[in-house]
Amino acid sequence: MMLTLREANTVDAEKEWRFVAAMPEDENGLLNQWYGVSRQEFETKALPQMLRFSEGVDLPDGFVPQTFLFLWNDDEIVGQFRVRHFLNDALRGGAGHIGYYIDKKYRGQGLATEGLRLTLEYAASIVPEEEFYLRVNKDNLASLRVMLKNGGRIVGETEYKIFVRIPKSSGDSYLCKIASPEEINQKWDEEIERHPASQSNWLTWKKEAVRNAESGKSVPYYGVLRGRVICEATAMLHPDAVQNSEGLVDEKTAYLCAFRTVPEYRGQGYFSKLLRFMLDDLAEKGCQRVTLGVEPDDENNLKIYRHFGFTDFIKHGREVYPDATAVDVDYYGKRLHPKNR
């Protein structure tokens, strides 16, 4: 059994649809407006709404940005978790940061406990409050036990509800950050060691990466879990640092590249959080648009980038590696939306 969390996405739409359509309309206070939804309506309305809500776009009055996560047991969805990015007054005295649902046929197997643990880890770098706020029905003792097993404590109750707080665990928190010079050198040395067959390319790329970061032509972003860099991305800020740079990078446009995630952490939402952190930081720096490149036949990554909003085709080009290998690249862009906080 391998439990993982994945954000709602277009690649897994078939299984997501089947799960959401079968979720009850109201399961212990967790509402599902898409119960019984058709496949077509899920792909055209429900899933796009989930993705927009995670970006804080088109939110109804009184709502805050909310990420929809699916709990996978190997290749099957067994639950859904929702992370509300911050509290407003209604959430502070109500549903709190996290809601979840486990398919009835998988209950009693510890999946909710592990799913909540993964969700808390996921949410640690998103939620600004020092503690996670949760709420549970008084007659749902199984869910209360799940919260308490994850470090929760009861802080209050009403006639029908129990309110729980779970402190953030600094040891397990996932941190998104701008990389230090020491971290850059260490991470590139790891990549060089990991790619012995193309070591000359990686040595050249390291020199360029260090030089660009030192000169301010690039900003490397790292995702760090328990002291280990598990994913990374780089924003190029100067045309001199980018091949085929026309239309890809200028004083208001950053070119994104060097997307890498350690294999065992892929598909769990870590890179998504790093990308959000990077886009927020670039927006604060005055960036209004971001671009990236993808090989035309790389359908999987193309779907992922479209999921993140990179749908504006810019141009086709060819890039050359240090060893003279040439690859075709299609370039896409997106405008940065103001972040709702």
Provide an overview of this structure:
With 341 residues, the chain is an alpha+beta fold. The protein folds into 2 domains: 3-167, Gcn5-related N-acetyltransferase (GNAT) (Aminopeptidase, 3-Layer(aba) Sandwich); 174-335, Aminopeptidase (3-Layer(aba) Sandwich). It contains 9 helices and 16 strands. It has helices at residues 13-22, 39-54, 89-92, 111-123, 141-149, 181-194, 199-215, 270-284, 299-307, and strands at residues 3-7, 26-27, 30-31, 66-73, 76-84, 98-102, 131-137, 153-157, 161-167, 174-178, 218-225, 228-236, 253-261, 289-294, 312-320, 326-335. Helix 1 (13-22) packs across helix 2 and helix 6 (181-194) runs antiparallel to helix 7 (199-215). The radius of gyration is 21 Å and the shape is globular. 32% of the residues are buried. The model has no long low-confidence stretch (mean pLDDT 91).
In short:
By secondary structure, the protein is an alpha+beta fold. Helix content is 31%, strand content 31%.
CATH architecture of the largest domain: 3-Layer(aba) Sandwich
**CATH fold field value of the largest domain:** Aminopeptidase
Overall 3D form? globular
CATH superfamily of the largest domain: Gcn5-related N-acetyltransferase (GNAT)
Number-wise, the strands total 16
Helix content: 25-40%
Q: Span between N and C termini?
A: 37 Å
**Low-confidence parts lasting 5 or more residues at pLDDT below 50?**
none
Strand content: 25-35%
Spell the H/E element sequence. Answer: EHEEHEEHEHEHEEEHHEEEHEHEE
Q: For the report, how would you describe the main beta sheet?
A: 7 strands, mixed
CATH class descriptor of the largest domain: Alpha Beta
Strand order across the largest sheet: 10-11-12-13-14-16-15
Whole-angstrom Rg: 21 Å
SS summary, helix count? 9
Mean pLDDT: 91
Please, how many domains? Answer: 2
Helical/strand content category: alpha+beta
